[in-house]
Design brief:
heterodimer; A: 359 residues; alpha+beta; five-stranded mixed β-sheet; 8 helices; B: 608 residues; mainly alpha; Cytochrome C Oxidase, Chain A; 4 strands
Chain lengths: 359, 608
């Protein structure tokens, strides 16, 4: 009922506006074209200046209102450079924005048509044109130089000591693989993938694979360089790390990499933001299907001790894929019950996400 | 005296004149008798084809904009239910809330429709057709028949695209860019089933239409200019249409090749874009393809495409600002040069859409440089427009208001291009709402403003009547304010990292702080959409009931189209095609308000 009412009201408003518009057309014909043009020039010229003033106030107000909801200080060292570049670009573009908008609307107001006035015949002026070609060119050169410096630094080869973590996207969650004690990831082949016990297609004949750990969460160590090796099982995804200001596509068949240095642990961020529930999130930033909006992984930034403790408690994917035959003793990692418990949950979590994704 | 009589009286006073012009329009063409079919349907008159493009474009624009209202409802009011949604969308909106699948289909179709069917065909198709022969002084296009085919291929593409909305598995839903493997595998997304095939077929037909049109525009401009109309005497509109057509001819075929390969991957078992996939519990046999190859092919058109959209608007705005300021356009040659520079650079910047695909960083650095280089010709254009209105004598018509609005939004959206073009910043802002804000302001809103300006300005030429001015003023102010209210705050959402193409943000601790803002934006979207309907009503009402023209040159403009009769027939000029003696921008020269292009230069005239 209220729906019909809303439509009725809208139609009514339309009719009223139309009648006013129609009437004003009749009036302008009766008044003569010149007079009505004078009137509409006055009104629109005035609105130009109103728009300029209110618009600039609005821009300031919007900034004031939303600034607090931004991300705060970058959580990675690399992000600091990006933030700095953003700040410089913000200042430069804001100056140009205010200056040009002010000129545009001020001129529109000031030079509205008036009786007896004639326009100034001013077809070109080489000096002016050279000035406003050269100045933007210089400013842009500076921005390009700074930008490329940051860009090459961020995309450079990861330092040798960086820890390696593999992130694989699939519809619609992330699979994170850790190299284990040997620090090296085992070989994989997409033909080995199965949803039961081999989500990324590890090649079990490669010994490097025996200690690799798989988890739905990304655990990284504060202050330590981390190199992500990014891939996808199905469609193009994107590893979005908004707090770290970083991003990299996950492309099936073509591995990509991204390295960075986290600055704050999750616990530190909870204190900094005053939010006890703060959590770093890894989002998918490339349209990947109907569950795109739900493709999330938690990122836990922790100290080296916390990380070591966590990774030691994880069962290897190899152990899960090769359950010990009944009666014989299980491999070392699974021997204690306390360690086996999280193992099951991890495996289950991946499997659950699997079914959820299929919905 | 009744209101109707007021209007009628005006007509009577000039009736003879109107009749005269109209009658003469047919003189040169006594040999062919026009039937309803040949005049309105399979017309070869460029003016009628322009109207066909325009009205088809308007219908598409309403559909495309309505889709955005639907998905904005979801974004603004994620918890609310709207039972009427179920009445129109059926199981796609069960219980009055659109599903994720429907959301992605709506987003995809919104993009496809607005970018290609409205702002390419509807904008360039309309005004290139209408203005090229009229402003260069030709009786019609180089090939009127090809021109007719161009519209009917567009119509066919429209029919196919429209039909994809009604198939059971829904239309394409992988985003307007349709990246494979998502778009290649029906198992990966419901929208990649038959809907995607229809999308590809429709787009292929669309490319054909675009090529037929563009080749015609180029040959008409190069070969069919009237006596005296050297290239440097052409109005800037024609220069803009010329470079737009060049861009289209050189880049659309690349897009087509990308689509054909995608069709092969979908149905021919090839692996151009597919490699190492595991989808729906199955290992696929494809190996060795590159998903990135498609992105290169797509953006090789995709980037020039944004200039295909914006250049015609720039051309029309240049023209309208000069006419309404009663001043010559400032720096004519610089304006032509900057369009040329933009056209050239448009081909060399496509990979800036791919900074985070794992692109070679060294190569990325070049694309940063070339991308930011585009800001220079863009800056020249902006400063020249501002100088054009400086010390002018501006008449505020709806057309001139929209032109000023165009310059404003072009500045706002252009400046954020400097952010995104810098790859280091793009790493953070890529695929966030910042990008949405940027391209909607700079090529969505701006191009629409250019289109509105063109429609209000040349409506009298198309239909011999005016559109209602007061409605035009209301339309402009609400749209300008609304556009800024919608898109300005999105920059901040993007800076906070909020990703685009999300159906729902409520599960994200990082992005759920903008609920109130999203609701506000959606509310403004509804108001702005309603205002556009007001424009559509004004348009169609004015075709039949608008105030009639009383003089062939209502805006006191210098260009050739206003030397034709009020309702020109096929062939445009009843007698000889006028000869041109000067450039198109002699306004307020030597104390004369304006000097038409057809007036010979007198010996005592001042030089410029």
């Amino acid at each position: 009922m209220s729906g019909y009412l809303a439509v009725f009201v809208v139609v009514l408003i339309f009719v009223v506006i139309f009648q006013i518009a129609k009437a004003s057309e009749y009036v302008s014909i009766l008044k003569g074209e010149k007079k009505s043009r004078e009137q509409s020039n006055r009104i629109n010229g005035f609105l130009m200046i109103v728009f300029l003033v209110l618009g600039l106030i609005g821009v300031w107000w919007c900034h004031d209102l939303l600034e607090g909801r931004m991300l705060g200080e970058s959580a990675s060292v690399q992000g600091d450079g990006i933030d700095q570049l953003i700040r410089v670009t913000f200042i430069i573009t804001m100056i140009v924005f205010v200056a040009t908008q002010a000129l545009l609307f001020w001129f529109a107001f000031k030079y509205q048509e008036k009786e007896g006035k004639t326009a100034f015949y001013f077809p070109h002026n080489n000096k002016l044109e050279v000035i406003w070609t050269v100045i933007p060119a210089i400013v842009l050169t500076v921005l390009v130089a700074f930008g490329i410096r940051h860009w090459l630094r961020i995309t450079s080869e990861a330092p040798k000591d960086a820890m390696i973590v593999e992130v694989t996207g699939k519809q619609f969650n992330w699979i994170v693989r850790y190299p284990g004690k040997d620090g090296q990831l085992g070989r994989k082949n997409f033909k080995n993938i199965n949803n039961e016990d081999n989500p990324v297609g590890q090649d079990w004949t490669d010994n490097l694979n025996t200690d690799d750990v798989i988890s739905p969460d990304l655990h990284i160590v504060v202050g330590k360089n981390v190199k992500l090796i990014i891939g996808s099982r199905d469609v193009v995804h994107d590893v979005g790390l908004s707090h770290f200001r970083l991003k990299m596509d996950a492309v099936p068949g073509i591995p990509t990499t991204l390295w960075f240095t986290p600055k704050f642990t999750t616990a530190e961020m909870r204190k900094r933001t005053g939010n006890p529930d703060f959590v770093y999130e890894l989002s998918c930033d490339q349209m990947c299907g109907s569950g795109h909006y739900s493709m999330k992984a938690n990122i836990i930034v922790e100290t080296q001790e916390e990380y070591d403790k966590w990774i030691a408690a994880q069962p290897t994917q190899y152990a899960q894929a090769h359950p010990a035959p009944a009666g014989t003793p299980a491999p070392a990692a699974d021997s204690t019950k306390t360690a086996a418990a999280p193992a099951d949950t991890t495996g289950k979590k991946v499997a659950m996400a699997e079914t959820a994704a299929k919905h | 005296m009744s209101n109707e009589a007021t209007l009628h009286n005006q007509d009577l006073a000039h009736h003879g004149h109107v009749e005269h012009g109209h009658g003469n329009g047919h003189d040169g063409h006594d040999h062919h008798h026009e039937t309803f079919i040949s005049k309105y349907v399979f017309s070869m008159d460029h003016k009628m084809i322009a109207k066909q493009f325009l009205i088809t474009g308007i219908i598409w624009a309403i559909i495309g904009a309505f889709f955005s209202v639907l998905f904005r409802l979801q974004l603004g009011y994620p918890d609310a239910t709207f039972p009427w949604l179920e009445s129109i969308l059926g199981h796609w909106a069960e219980g009055g809330r659109i599903t994720a699948e429907a959301y992605y289909a709506l987003v995809t179709m919104h993009g496809t429709i607005l970018v290609f069917f409205v702002l390419t065909a509807g904008l360039s198709g309309t005004f290139s057709n209408l203005l090229i022969p009229l402003q260069v002084g030709a009786r019609d296009m180089a090939s009127p028949f090809m021109n007719m085919l161009s519209y009917w291929f567009f119509f066919l593409a429209s029919v196919v695209m429209m039909s994809s909305l009604f198939v059971q598995t829904g239309p394409a839903s992988g985003g307007w860019t349709s990246y494979p493997p998502l778009s290649a595998l029906g198992d990966a997304s419901i929208g990649s089933k038959i809907g995607m095939d229809l999308w590809l077929v429709s787009m292929a037909i669309f490319v054909v239409s675009s090529l037929l049109g563009s080749l015609n525009y180029i040959s008409t401009i190069l070969n069919m200019r009237t006596k005296g109309m050297s290239m440097t005497k052409m109005p800037l509109t024609i220069w803009a249409f010329f470079f737009t057509a060049v861009l289209g001819v050189l880049s659309f075929p690349v897009l087509l090749s990308g689509f054909v390969l995608l069709l092969f991957d979908r149905h021919g078992g090839t692996s151009f874009y597919l490699s190492e996939l595991f989808v729906q519990g199955k290992v696929l046999p494809n190996e060795g393809g590159s998903a990135i190859l498609y992105q290169h092919l797509f953006w090789f058109l995709g980037h020039p495409e944004v200039y295909i959209i914006i250049l015609p608007a720039m051309g029309m705005v240049s023209e309208i600002l000069a006419v309404s300021s009663r001043k010559p356009i400032f720096g004519y040659l610089a304006m032509v040069g900057s369009i040329f520079a933009i056209t050239l650079l448009a081909f060399l910047v496509w990979a800036h859409h791919m900074f985070v695909t794992g692109l070679n960083p060294f190569l990325g650095a070049f694309f940063v440089l070339l991308t930011l280089l585009i800001a220079v010709p863009s800056a020249i254009k902006v400063f020249n427009w501002i100088t054009t209105i400086w010390r002018g004598n501006i008449r505020f018509t709806p057309a001139s208001l929209f032109s000023i609005g165009f310059v404003s939004t072009f500045i706002s959206g252009g400046l954020t291009g400097i952010w995104l073009g810098n790859s280091a910043i793009d790493i953070h802002l890529h695929d966030t709402y910042f990008v949405i804000a940027h391209f909607h302001i700079v090529m969505g809103v701006s191009a629409f403003f250019g289109m509105f300006a063109g429609i209000y300005h040349w409506f009298p030429k198309m239909y011999g009547r005016f559109m209602n001015q007061t409605l035009g003023f209301i339309h402009f102010w609400i749209t300008l304010v609304g556009a800024y209210l919608i898109f300005w705050p999105m920059h901040y959402e993007g800076m906070a990292g909020m990703p685009r193409r999300y159906f729902d943000y409520s599960n994200w601790a990082s992005f759920n702080m903008f609920g109130g803002l999203n609701q506000f934006i959606s509310f403004v979207v509804i108001i702005v959409f309603a205002t556009q309907l007001l424009f559509v009503f004004n348009f169609f009402y004015s075709i039949f009931k608008g105030r009639k023209l009383t003089t062939p040159n209502p805006w006191d403009a210098t260009t050739l189209e206003w030397t034709t009769p009020i309702n020109p027939g096929h062939g445009n000029w009843p007698g000889e095609i006028p000869e041109v003696h000067r450039w198109a921008y002699d306004y307020s020269k030597d104390g004369k308000d304006f000097i038409p292009q057809t007036v010979p230069v007198s010996p005592d005239e001042s030089q410029h």
